[in-house]
Amino acid sequence: MQWLEDNGIRYEFINTKEQPPTKAMIAAWAQTLTTKPMRNTSGQSYRALGAIKETWSDADWIDAFARDAMLLKRPLFVKDGEAVFVGFRATDAMLRQTLG
């Protein structure tokens, strides 16, 4: 959030644990980003899934994200209703171009 503020990028913070996204929202984001980069692979919820997650389709992941928002990698950036970026690993220039 500090980086966004420092770069003059307006944003609305939504705590997905308190306000989980709908399955329809997640499905739309997955159409743009695909489900793989949306997975929070460092979280406890992800690890608790066990080996079964290796066999899941995108539809299975969308269902899982809808059941447990902690499976979603954060931050997930949505601009004008469309997911544009997930995570925060990119150059400053790329982030400014994508989010600005």
How would you summarize what this structure contains?
This protein has five helices and two strands. The chain is mainly α and 100 residues long. β1 and β2 form a beta hairpin.
Structure commentary:
- With 100 residues, this protein is mainly alpha-helical.
- It has one domain (2-12, 20-99): 3-Layer(aba) Sandwich (Glutaredoxin), CATH 3.40.30.10.
- Helices cover 39% and strands 9% of the residues.
- The protein contains five helices and two strands.
- It has helices at residues 2-6, 23-33, 44-48, 58-67, 92-99, and strands at 76-79, 82-86.
- A two-stranded antiparallel ribbon has the order 1-2.
- Strand 1 (76-79) and strand 2 form a beta hairpin.
- It is elongated and about 40 Å long.
- The two termini are 14 Å apart.
- The mean pLDDT is 89.
Give the low-confidence spans: none
Q: Quick one: biggest sheet?
A: 2 strands, antiparallel
Which strand-content bin applies to the residues? 5-15%
User: Domains counted in the coordinates: how many?
Assistant: 1
Structural class: mainly alpha
CATH level 1 class label:
Alpha Beta
Q: What string gives the helices and strands in order?
A: HHHHEEH
What's the pLDDT, averaged over the residues? 89
Would you report the number of β strands?
Answer: 2
First and last CA, distance:
14 Å
CATH topology: Glutaredoxin
Instruction: Specify the CATH architecture.
Output: 3-Layer(aba) Sandwich
Rg, rounded, reads 14 Å
Helicity range of the residues? 25-40%
